[in-house]
Design brief:
By secondary structure, the chain is α+β, with helices and mostly antiparallel strands. It has three helices and six strands; from the N terminus they run βαβααββββ. The chain has a single domain, classed as Nuclear Transport Factor 2, Chain: A, CATH 3.10.450. 27% of the residues lie in helices and 35% in strands.
Amino acid sequence: MASEYFNFPLKTADLIQKRDLPRISLEDSVSRMIHLMIITHFGEYKPDASLGCEIWDFDFDNITNYQLFKEQVTASLKQTIQKFEPRLSQVRIDIQIQQVDIRIENRRTKSQITLKVDGVLIKTNEQYSYTENFFIGPLSYY
């Protein structure tokens, strides 16, 4: 299948010079949109403040109730995906949390989050899976 979706961020210089813009697959496009939803704080996207994920509300918190954290972030992200990613159906989200010692200058313990989104691509009826790993407190990727 031909790639129909634009890679972002768009290179406006290519657009102005009327060059073809890079294209990506449906799966890559959905993955990039989900990544954008995860890293966006509610209210950060001015045209629609409901784009985002509640994970940012916990970024500097010392999470004491992991089950409540998982439930809140799962509900938040699922609602955002259902609203902003209509190409995906039957969305399931799994969050795993692990305490990890990081040795940068001094020893710190951070919460490592493994977030997995599964669903079905509506256009092709294919199974879809996206996994992202990051640390919170403060949020960082590895």
